[in-house]
Every structure is written in C-alpha cells, then in structure tokens.
Amino acid sequence: MIKYDGLMDDEAVESLALAEHASHVGKVVLARSISGYFLSDSFDIVLDPPVRVRVEAVPEGDIRRWRDDWLDPVWDVAVLDDHPLLADKRSFWVHGTSYHRDGRTEPGDLLLS
C-alpha cells in the first residue's frame, strides 16, 4: 500500500473494496436498503424489516466506482425473501462499504447475518 501525505493511493483503496466484495460473494446477508429497477426507472428503498439477499459476483468496474475522493462500490444481490415493497421490482443491487483515501470508511447497505 502506498500512502501520499497520509492518503492511500487508488490501487490500495480499490484492493480493500475488491477483497471485501470477494469475501461476501455467495453469502446470505440482510439488506437494510436496496436499489433496483421498476419498469425503466431505478429506485432506492429503505427496508424495515431488512430482507435476506445473496451477494452475487459483479464486474470489477462496479467495485471501482470513484465519486470524487471516495470509492462507492455497488454489489449485485439476489433477493431471497418475499417483500411487499419489492414484489414488482427487478435487478437489485446494494452499496458496499465506501472507502476514502484517508482511510475512513462508511458502512454500506448490508447487515451481516
């Protein structure tokens, strides 16, 4: 890992996010919020109670999503439970942990179960 003035380089940050996603692929976890599509429009919904999802593999580009100075990874998920707010929706995804170059993290949409 290379640090510049207390900041990690992009490759180090991306490595953390890629490793986290790889460690969750195939696992069943709880999603407290979820995104997807309804017809041709995307949506974001907070779920109470959370819904069980299985984390799916995604292209590395979905993990290497930079937003200014922070990495905002997106993970595809398969919804495993019926939920009234998701009945007519499709193509679900959640946000993984967000990583900042200064080492800070922000939790994603998942709760480990």
Describe this structure in words.
The structure is a single chain. With 113 residues, the chain is of the alpha+beta class. It has helices spanning 10-24, 60-63; strands spanning 3-4, 7-8, 28-38, 41-55, 66-67, 70-71, 74-79, 90-95, 98-100, 105-106, 110-111. Strands 3, 4, 7, 8 and 11 form a five-stranded antiparallel beta sheet that branches. Strands 5-6-9-10 form a four-stranded antiparallel beta sheet, with helices on one face. The chain has a two-stranded antiparallel ribbon with strand order 1-2. It is elongated, with a radius of gyration of 15 Å. It starts with a strand and ends with a strand. The mean pLDDT is 91.
